[in-house]
Amino acid sequence: MSDELKVQNPSLIGIITNPSQQFDRIYEKPLIGFAMVITMVFYAVGYLLEVTDETTSIIGSIIGVIIGVILRVFILSAVFMFFTTFAPKSTVTLKQLGSMNTYISFILAINVLVSGIAIFMIGGNPTVLFTNMETIINLIFTIWIIVLTALGLERVAGFSKKLAWFAAILVILVTFFDQVVALFLILVLYSLLKFGLLLAKQKDN
Q: Which domain holds residue 60?
């Protein structure tokens, strides 16, 4: 195979400058490892800059970040796999969704890093000095992530535009809730859906 025909690796910088191209690459070559590590590093640095409690364990915080990022990617991928039920032409795999969500999570990591740097530079009590600015920053990044998620679901998962936007808005907003509770609800809904589809097939037979 010539070099021209080889699919290039998706790029973290590209997810900012040219997301459509990166989602096409993710569809062809879903990668997770490197993007996951960089996302964790950005997230950990940002979180540690935000921490004002000197008694907070750095190692514990880093472990929490690692678990949190992995959980986020896994949960979102499971949820979007559930939505493929409403997109019968979709052939997306869990690995492709995992790669897509990892690269989109890099944007969230930038959000945390930017907030952390701002809090560190301002100093003092972040809940008093930074509340309004942090709200604006989080809102901008949330909208950005929703837009990227909708685009990714179209490009990677083959969702219709309406389904992609519905799933993106619903799921990203739900992630503000406790992730463990969300995972439990997702698994329950997925099991119920599978059971319903099985009963429907039995009736058809």
A: 14-176
